[in-house]
Design a protein that fits this description.
This protein has 23 helices and 32 strands. The protein is of the alpha+beta class and about 850 residues long. The N and C termini lie far apart (about 90 Å).
């Protein structure tokens, strides 16, 4: 019987023997703006399926880590729902098609996995006679176990238009005990848990046009996906994925950490499965650079992580435990995903920080539940409404199960139906608000141009000036020219590096190149006309602006140094999350869970400048991906698929895959200076920096500012820091003295207000306004007057930029008068609001001109209360 790890290896070896290139799993953060996470094995290859890029190999095989959360509430309840799972796949880009895909899947399932042929069923699309015949002729598969299903089950499409095609799926029959009877077939009602899909073969052979009609694709593709967890269950004779060797050791570890045991108690089993599944998802998401937050991928991670922690609480575990699950996940998955081992401490730290935060939230939630119970009882209710239970869950993150448990202990009812109705209402709102982004493939002009002319030859690594033939010229919407040549020295914007600028001249024409974009290897130059007209098929001289190129290359090479320095100072978990490089500056975004300290920034800056001072050589070579890995090259997902990759090595310090332009010696950067470090999203930091001349200008500006400060404080540059610190100390002492004097003045003013006290129905009342008092001064005056007068009501207001009010009521009078009521009346007159304790309250308002009117209003209200 094969283990899960063996199945993974056998699958890859099987297809490597069928001339497939093995690509490692791509990141869970896809190189695709339409997707939040990698949800299927084909996601990394969408550009090839949609014709946006040429595939580097005609045949590819992978095991791909995936995340799906569309059925999160079912994870742990069913035998096969997961957030994290692995998808085995083999892909053909215009090479083999249905016959090979079907035959090889049958060979692998029956000869490698050795699944019982008599328990296998196959589905094909309603009209796919070809696929059915291949199953019968090539695989000798019995026709009576082939079922035809419609578009909902056996059709794949990229969107309403574009690439699409039929599917064929392989299923395993678990038998009548899981649904139906001896005569049941795949697709019959009530057999969802009986016929288990293990492999989906997608035959992408059609293009759906705008009018809905189908036309054959010039190149037909194969996209297959086989869930590793499901296959392992079938091979190991388990009806539940969580009982396979891929998952059950994690179930046992979750039980050990929560003092629970997997067995007959379905509630306990449910919670252990949730913790098991979610611990894998959390570990892999953080490993790929996701940090918990309230939006996007970070929110997905936070939601999964908190759900796992909640289930730990339901099992009675109040201590932190989830971060400890990471060790077991890494020990089980580290062979297939070795980068987990390098990042284990970072992963555990992020999980622990979030787990600590949510544990505090849970404690607050328990208090909130008890408050709601008390409130309901006071109102004569013996039940918490669905509005309340949903608010506790949605607003405060408090689980319904815990709300239900606490209510049960207090003899208060809750309605799960009402809670679930509110949940469904929220889902419906989300569904109706969700914008579905579909792709229609590549620009038709580019497709046609590519088919006729192929790609543009880029010579910009070696040459800054080149004679080239103009192949196509068009006018853009804003009147500029779009020009395509057979070759070009101009670097097209890519990987965060801006394009080259320069000139195009020849045959009486002159134009300025202001932008270059690349589509499917075709370089499109945006040109402002200076003089003359250009004609297709004529030769022109293309020359880049060397000064701009030099400045860009310095900044680009500096980002490589910065990336490596950040990993050395902060840790190996740091990954590039984006960058922007132009001639003036560089911007580098990276994953990190907290702001950098001044000391860390200094160490990074020092390390980069140290390498610049060493004048390290920059070695750029083309090599195979395997060679690059052996060299230790770092790569972002979007860079790593290609038979030949470009490796940029800076001495023995940095080595990365990169298609950008670079200097030949790092010493030419001259100087590197960090301008700022900031957070741009949860878990994502940004450094902005300058190099060379721009760095010198930045430092010069700082020096000029320092000279100005020195002149202002009457010091020289050598002693300016000491001088400023002494002045600050003097200011602090003066401020303390001023505050003491102000307190005395306030006390004297309060005493003088004794004489202004009037009596209203036998109660002493002081109502007074000022122009320049702050909130603290008003409070001190209220306290002083209450102490002096013994029994009184004090209403004070002040207004300069805005209105401020303070009201005090001695304790013997709060039965009649509440300070919060009076201060609210005053604040509302001045365009504000507020409240407070019965004996003292403060508030503010926008309109300082209405302070006197506001105090008068509060005084009038007071008269009605006394």
């Amino acid at each position: 019987m094969l283990t899960g790890n063996q199945i993974r290896k056998e699958f890859i070896e099987f297809f490597k023997n069928k001339s497939h290139k093995h690509f490692e799993s791509a990141s869970l953060i896809p190189d695709d703006p339409t997707l939040l996470l990698t949800v299927a094995g084909m996601v990394p290859f969408k550009p090839y399926f949609l014709g946006q890029k040429e595939a580097p190999y005609p045949r590819v095989t992978t095991y791909q880590k995936c995340i799906r959360t569309n059925d999160l509430e079912n994870v742990g309840r069913t035998a096969r729902h997961h957030t994290f799972f692995e998808m085995l796949g083999n892909f053909s880009f215009g090479d083999y098609f249905k016959e090979e895909a079907i035959a090889w899947s049958w060979e692998f399932v029956t000869e490698v996995l050795k699944l019982d042929k008599d328990k296998l069923w196959v589905s094909v699309f309603t009209t796919d006679d070809e696929a059915e015949q291949i199953w019968i002729d090539k695989c000798k598969f019995p026709k009576e176990r082939i079922v035809r299903l419609g578009e909902d089950e056996n059709w794949w499409a990229a969107g309403p238009t574009g690439s699409c095609g039929p599917c064929s799926e392989i299923h395993v029959d678990l038998g009548p005990s899981y649904g139906g009877d001896e005569n049941s077939k795949l697709g019959d009602e009530g057999t969802d848990n009986r016929f288990i899909e293990i492999w989906n073969l997608v035959f992408t052979e059609w293009n759906r046009k705008e009018d809905g009609s189908l036309e054959p694709l010039p190149k037909k593709n194969i996209d297959t996906g086989a869930g590793l967890e499901r296959i392992a269950a079938m091979v190991q004779g388990k009806s539940n994925n969580f009982e396979t060797d891929l998952l059950f050791p994690l179930v046992e570890e979750a039980g050990r950490l929560t003092n629970s045991k997997y067995g007959d108690n379905q509630d306990v089993n449910f919670s252990l499965k949730v913790i098991t599944d979610h611990s894998r998802a959390v570990t892999f998401l953080i490993n790929d650079g996701v940090i918990p937050s309230n939006e996007g991928r970070g929110y997905v991670l936070r939601r999964i992580l908190r759900r796992a922690v909640r289930h730990g609480r339901l099992l009675g575990q109040s201590e932190l435990f989830l971060y400890k699950m990471v060790d077991k996940v890494v020990s089980m998955m580290g062979e297939a995903y070795p980068d987990l081992k390098k990042n284990i401490e970072h992963i555990k730290k992020v999980v622990k920080i979030e787990e600590e935060k949510f544990s505090r939230t849970l404690d607050q939630g328990i208090q909130l539940v008890n408050q709601e119970i008390e409130k309901a009882k006071k109102e004569g209710q013996n039940k918490l409404s669905g509005d309340v239970t949903f608010k506790l869950y949605d607003t405060y993150g408090f689980p319904y199960e815990l709300t239900e448990e606490i209510c049960g202990e207090n003899g208060v009812e809750v309605s799960k139906e009402e809670f679930e109705a509110k949940m469904e209402e929220q889902k419906e709102k989300a569904r109706s608000a969700r914008e579905v982004i579909m792709e229609k493939g590549q620009d038709s002009f580019i497709e046609e141009f590519y088919d006729k002319n192929g790609t543009t030859e880029f010579v910009g690594y070696e040459s800054s000036e080149e004679k080239a033939r103009l192949l196509n010229i068009r006018e853009s919407k804003d009147g500029k020219l779009l020009m395509i040549f057979d070759k070009t020295p101009f670097y097209a914007e890519a990987g965060g590096q801006t394009s080259d600028h320069g000139t195009i001249k020849g045959n009486g024409f002159e134009g300025r190149v202001i932008d270059v974009q690349k589509q499917k290897g075709i370089y499109v130059h945006t040109v402002e006309v200076v003089a003359g007209n250009a004609k297709e098929q004529e030769q022109y001289t293309l020359e880049i602006d060397r000064a701009i190129r030099a400045a860009i290359t310095k900044n680009h090479s500096a980002t490589h140094l910065l990336h490596k320095a950040l990993r050395e100072v902060l840790g190996e978990h740091v990954q590039q999350a984006g960058s922007y490089v132009n001639a003036q500056r560089l911007r580098f975004d990276f994953n990190h869970y907290e702001a950098m300290t001044e000391e860390q920034l200094d160490r990074v800056e020092d390390l980069v400048n140290e390498k610049i001072a060493q004048a390290l050589e920059v070695d750029i070579r083309n090599m195979s991906m395997d060679e690059a890995k052996k060299e230790g090259a770092m790569a972002l997902f979007g860079d790593k698929y290609g038979s030949v990759v470009r490796v940029v090595k800076v001495g023995d310090f940095s080595i990365e895959l990169c298609g950008g332009t670079h200097i030949d010696n790092i010493g030419k950067i001259g100087l590197f200076k960090i301008e700022s470090e900031s957070g741009i999203a949860a878990g994502v930091r940004r450094i902005e920096a300058v190099t060379g001349t721009q760095a010198y200008k930045f430092v010069k500006q700082i020096e000029n500012n320092l000279k100005t400060i020195a002149k202002t404080v009457k010091s020289d540059l050598t002693n300016v820091v000491d001088r400023v610190e002494r002045l600050n100390e003097t200011l602090r002492e003066n401020s303390k003295e001023i505050e003491t004097l102000k307190a005395k003045v306030t006390s004297y003013e309060a005493k003088s207000l004794n004489d202004d006290a009037e009596e209203i129905n036998g109660v002493k009342v002081v109502a007074k306004t000022f122009k320049d008092k702050n909130a603290e001064e008003l409070r001190q005056m209220v306290d002083s007057l209450k102490e002096k007068l013994g029994s009184c009501v004090v209403i004070l207001g002040s207004g300069e930029d805005k209105a401020i009010f303070a009201v005090g009521v001695t304790k013997d009078l709060i039965g009649k008068v509440k300070a919060g009521v009076l201060v609210k009346e005053a604040a509302q007159v001045a365009g504000g609001n507020g409240g407070g304790r019965p004996d003292f309250a403060q508030a503010g308002g926008k309109d300082a001109d209405k302070v006197e009117e506001a105090v008068a209003k509060a005084k009038e209200v007071l008269k009605t209360l006394l």
